[in-house]
Hints:
By secondary structure, the chain is α/β, with parallel strands linked by helices. It has 2 domains: about 1-40, no CATH class; about 45-235, DHBP synthase (Alpha-Beta Complex). It is built from 7 helices and 12 strands. It has helices at about 15-20, 55-65, 90-100, 115-120, 125-135, 170-175, 200-205, and strands spanning about 35, 35-40, 45, 70-75, 80-85, 105-110, 140-145, 160-165, 180-185, 210-215, 225, 235. The strands form 2 sheets. A 10-stranded mixed sheet has the order 3-10-4-5-9-6-8-7-11-12, sandwiched between helices. Strands 1-2 form a two-stranded antiparallel ribbon. α2 (about 55-65) packs across α6 (about 170-175). It is globular. The termini are far apart.
Amino acid sequence: MEIVxxxxxxxxxxxxxTFYGMIPDLPWTPASLRGNSFEYIMSQFFQIHPVNPQARLxxxxxxxxxxxxxxxxxxxxxxxxxxxxxxxxxxxxxxxIRGLDDTHNFTLVCRDLSxxxxxxxxxxxxxxxLKSFTPGPYTFILRATHEVPRRLxxxxxxxxxxxxxxxxxxxxLLGELGAPLxxxxxxxxxxxxxxxxxxxxxxxxxxxxxxxxDGGNCGLDSTxxxxxxxxxxxxxxxxxxxxxxxx
Length: 247
C-alpha cells in the first residue's frame, strides 16, 4: 500500500489558475480546482489476491469508495473503473478518463440477481436469461427504475447497464460496500481493448485515480453486451462471454 498525497491551499481561485498556467507540465489539471482548494492526488496501489482477497485491503478499498474515491479494479473480463452510485464527480472523472459523451450507458455492478430488480425492470423472459448467464462476463441493458439517478441513465432511452461479475475481488468489494458499483470498462481513448496490466494503469493514471487494485491478469476482452430493453435479446457487443443460447 502506498500513501495518498493531497495538497490543499486556500488561495484565490484565479491565483491557482495562474500558477497552473505558469507550469504546464504539472500532472494536475484545472478540473482539480474545487472552490478555493487545490487537490493533488497520487493513487494508492493494492495487490489483492485474486482468489482469496485480503479482508483488510478490501475494507480499505471500500473506505476509499465511500469517501468518493475512483478506483480501478479487476473483473472476470478486464479491468474497470468504479465508484459508488452517488458519486457524481466520480462519474465525471470516468467520462474524462475514457473520453465518453453523455450517451454512454454506464453499468451498475451488482452482487446478485436480487439486487438487480431494485435498479432495472426485469420481466420473466429477461429474468430467465439473467439467471442462466450470471454471474459472468455479460452486461445487460435494461430499462432503469426510479432508484437509478437520471445522470446514470441513457438520456433518451432511460436504460442502464447491469452486470453481475464472477470474480472474488469484485464480490468481496460489493459485499463490503453493501451496494452496487457504478462502473465502466477501462478502455482508454484511441484504444480498442481494455487495459490489462495494473502497473501500467497506475503509471498512466496515477494522478486521475484514488486507487488501483492489482488482481493479476484478468482478461483481454470487454464484457458481451446484450440489449434487453424491448424484451428480445440483441447483441450490442461481442466480448468474452459466448452468445450461444442467448440469441
